[in-house]
Structures
1.
Amino acid sequence: MDNAKDTPEVEENVDAQTEEASAEVAEAVSEETVEEAVEPKELTLEEQLEAAKAEAAENYNNYLRSVADLDTYRRRVMREKDELKQYAISGLLEDFLPIYDNLGLGLMSAEQTTDPKVVVQGIQMVMTQFKSLLADNGIAEVAPGAGDDFDPNVAEAFQTQPSDEVEEGKVLSLMRKGFTLNGRLIRPASVVVSGGPAKEGE
């Protein structure tokens, strides 16, 4: 009778020991699998050489593609630069054409009239149109007048003349107008500078 009572307890112990052993075996197998996954497989010298050759070939192909792309980009930029240089003034030229037309009409009118006032008025109208076009494109006149300070940054002294009316070192007269483009000097004005009152013997 006692042996019959002890049998379930023995079976429970055996089952517990079996489960514990199975868990240890599973853990050991899992650790081995992780170690195999973590530790890289060592390559032979031949395999390492082949891998290095493949990597070198890929890098060389990438280099060739980069060189080709750079050459294509350089040629495209040069072509666009040439086109820009050739046609950069096309818009400005289009604005000049009406003035050109008006000059032609003015010449035709001058040939048909004997009144100089009509010719002068026509020229003045074309000049006004021309100045408006220059201003619209950022072009400004540099025209110092008599008595203005001589500024070597925007004007050049054509010559010096004595004068009793204009102070020495100031502009006496304007010989040729200068021009600036968006504040940058394109052509300096040419002026005559006063040398002050004439000295005796001059």
2.
Amino acid sequence: MINILKTSVKMAALGAVVMGASAASAGVDFGKRGEAVNLVIGYQPYYTESWTGVVNNGKSFWKKHLPAGSTAEFQVGLQGSVIVNAMAGEKQHIGYMGDMPAIASTFKYLPERGGTDIRIVAALGTSKQQCNIFLVRNDAPKFADGTAAVKWMDGKITSAPHGACTDRFAQAAFKSAGVKPAKYLNQNIEVITTNFRAGKLDAAAIWEPTATKMVKSGIARRAASGEDFGLQDGAFMVMLNDLISQRPDAVMGWLEAELDAQEFVANPANADAIAAMAEAQTEQIDQSVLKASLYDSPMAGTTKLQLDFTISDDAKSLLKDATAFLYSLKKKPAAAAQIRPEGVMGQFAERVLEKRGLKTPVGRIIAK
């Protein structure tokens, strides 16, 4: 009885925090607490760091934690920006995405101009070699390490999807190595692939699982990662504040399911099952490639993925640095140098972790 009372008090406190925060007027009716809720989830099976969404979709962990009769429709987003736009239009309610789009989503609402209020509620994972990867053309020299590879890029033709985590990594690596490429092009994955094949590109920064797919296809060679420069990348879960304010019970339930998914991913015995789920939810990517993108690395023994769950110190540091980078861009998708305080709401995930008697990180995948 005491535990039930404590839980009720903490849930009430969370609800008060949410209701008291500044927000846009509610645009979606999620029903009353305890009622069935119908959710639409935008997720990225083509971004390995956010694969807990793939697992939750494949294993349906959410059914154990949401009220009876609830539904969850998973919609694939090829890029995080696609999910952000869908959430801004309130067509999706929960999003799984990389650090840059997650940060950009919080600026869809500002107190002075309104908009759609989207908030970061959990960390899906952090790493130094999921988005932070440099590939080079196959006939490039053999490099002693990643730093030497990036120094070779001085005066070369390089590329990355600009405004993404790859862009932040590439620019930071260039600065660290003291190099200036002849060209640093803004290209998407398809164009980068085509240009490597045509011999028009010396190097490019790209994320998993595309990086592993390109290497195993013989299109390019892996040369450097964030491990060489101490640079992090990450993925986060975001939610509409309409959902948070109206249904803190559903928020807690979904995060319970996310924790189930992170624990599932952290167990190496589930590697084949995870790769099979990823293959079923993507197109034209072999299961062996998908598995390698999560578990293999030239730097064996390093952390391929850290499952933080809460907004850990590592996640907070990443968000701070990435927001400053976004703000520095000429287009300024971030409207301020920092995320507004209520834009990051880690208390729900912290409460779920506390209930389970766990601490962050909930697991690590060590590269083979």
3.
Amino acid sequence: MFIRFHPWLNRPVLTTDLLPAAQRDSRRLLIALHGLGDSMEGYRWLPGALNLPWLNILLVNAPDEYYGGWSWYDIVRDSAVGIGRSRKLLTDLLDRQRAAGFPSEQTILFGFSQGCLMTLETGLRYPHKLAGLVGISGYVSDPEKLLAELSPVALQQRALVTHGTDDRVIPFAMTREQINTLKAEGLHIEWHEFVKEHTIADEAELDVIREFIVRGFA
């Protein structure tokens, strides 16, 4: 596994590509985080699928090379270390977007699989309220640790988590139990299950995601 390093700071970095909204001057932003072995290229369909002309979309590549794609953390060894490292990178990214004129309260963090984990792990620790968190077909590394490290605004954050009953990569029952644990502590998480495998499903799931995003900017 290879890690991209900043040539001057000698540390891993994220690469990004901003797809601007059709509606000029919009400061509404969605940051899209891919899954294991994928890249930002796998999500260039997202603006057309969501069909929200006022939404800027920032595509992000994870920091570690993985068989032609990218990874947020090593799934075999030291995953906690990698998750913590990537969480710091994403926190810095959110801060940079705020400085660039995209307010946190108008920013959605969106992720699939590993990207879902990074969305929840980062968003629920982030000290500023976001427009929402969207996690698809993922899980949480350590629910008890996350609950112990929630940000002061975590109970104000809105989250949507979806999962497939036929997911053979990340077990459905495990994720549902984790989400129930988080909800029991007062976190505002909408849970939707679909008859699907480890993927983003058809228009039915996209409708749920789109409606959640629209409500986040109401």
4.
Amino acid sequence: MNFNFDVLRSAPVNTDPFPYFMAQGVLSEDDLAEAIRDFPKLDMAGLFLPEAAEYGTSFARLLDILRGPELRQIVGEKLQVDLTGRPTMVTVRACAQAKDGRIHSDSKFKLATVLLYLNEPWEADGGRLRLLRSPTDIEDYVGEVPPHGGTLVCFKVTPNSWHGHKPFVGTRRYMMLNYCQDASVRNNEEARHRMSGRIKKVKRVFGVGKVGAA
């Protein structure tokens, strides 16, 4: 698994209306195909911890890369945030449902958010992440990120770091890495995701929450 850190280092940082950067091609076509193959086997909407489903070795390598020191250094330098010693949390999403993508700004316990998309080439109009000036208008955007496989977007979490996407239903894979304020809050969030994941799996048995492929 080769991760192209150089394309991240050379990506320009935008500061309007909040600091963010994006890059395409952080994975080769072969590595992307392997990561998709080894992605956790989930057919439910919502965020899950990686441990919620079985995954393969290529995905495990990506986890190590995202949690590693090189990405931490790049993100900290580009967003001008001191991430030294900050705990990380990784969650994954495999599917989108119609209500996903509503405009929001990430929780205050997060310092920075990294999204790595692991999809086939994206053709749909919906599901394209928009970085917004407004908490109310999905059309008032400064950047749009099609979730093509191997695309990475990263932003500093601020009170106005609004983002969202137009509705899409179907397969929409990504890994989300968050650098967190402290371990205690991170641990609480992970516990919440574990409980939520268990509930979703129970509902899935009764046919609730399953999302079909697009």
